[in-house]
Amino acid sequence: MTILRRLWKADSGAELIELAIALPILLLVTCGIIDLGIMFQRYEVVTNAAREGARVGVLPDFTATDVQNRVNGYLAASGLTASAPAPKVTYSKVPISGGGPSISVVKVVVQYPHQFVFLGPAAALFGGTSLGNITLAASSTMRREGAAAP
Asked: How far apart are the C-alpha atoms of 91 and 85, rounded to whole Å?
């Protein structure tokens, strides 16, 4: 009877059970941090691509095609290849007046699809689909120097 009581109170193997409970949670948190870091890096690239497109757009004799090429070139140089769907670039010249003389600005909006590497599949394991794809969007507006409103 004492041997049975000693075996009942033995805690050899408790660490294994604790590891089995804590390890999936720790891995999910670690993968989430990595995924959000990748997303933030891509967002910064999209933001800088919008700035580069606006810089080209304010120059004289540059067209929307030149802006599109500059944005796509910046995205490709940063490692963001044109995936399906391709990055969307909106280029517009907007006249602004605030009671004084009008100015002309160029606004470039860049949208890039982002797919979560770890969190999307992990959410699918639990029946969720909200973390599959998101669209990263950034815009940049710059004044055209020496250009009056159209």
From this structure: 18
